[in-house]
């Protein structure tokens, strides 16, 4: 016997769930999957986790849903957390290359340093 709950109370209940739980309830049936995949719920989760999500517009999001955005960014964080220093190649550069003024002519193949107050 399947019980059908109204959409609005379900959305309210789902709004208290974390991402993992939301993914789990999406597996119950098609109706719950549709509700649990709602952009409203996933955007709220994104805003809780990353402050810059308030600035993301649908145009910047593109064809990606908020759910896809959340999952991809979480995957990126996980991948970055596993990185070790030896996974990166870096080189130190001389200090004179750190700050230069494009408007000044180059001397001896190097940019002239700019003194900022």
TrEMBL record:
<dbReference type="Pfam" id="PF12937">
    <property type="entry name" value="F-box-like"/>
</dbReference>
<dbReference type="InterPro" id="IPR036047">
    <property type="entry name" value="F-box-like_dom_sf"/>
</dbReference>
<dbReference type="InterPro" id="IPR001810">
    <property type="entry name" value="F-box_dom"/>
</dbReference>
<protein>
    <submittedName>
        <fullName>F-box and WD-40 domain protein 21</fullName>
    </submittedName>
</protein>
<dbReference type="InterPro" id="IPR052121">
    <property type="entry name" value="F-box_SCF_Substrate_Recog"/>
</dbReference>
<feature type="domain" description="F-box">
    <location>
        <begin position="1"/>
        <end position="45"/>
    </location>
</feature>
<keyword id="KW-0833">Ubl conjugation pathway</keyword>
<comment type="pathway">
    <text>Protein modification; protein ubiquitination.</text>
</comment>
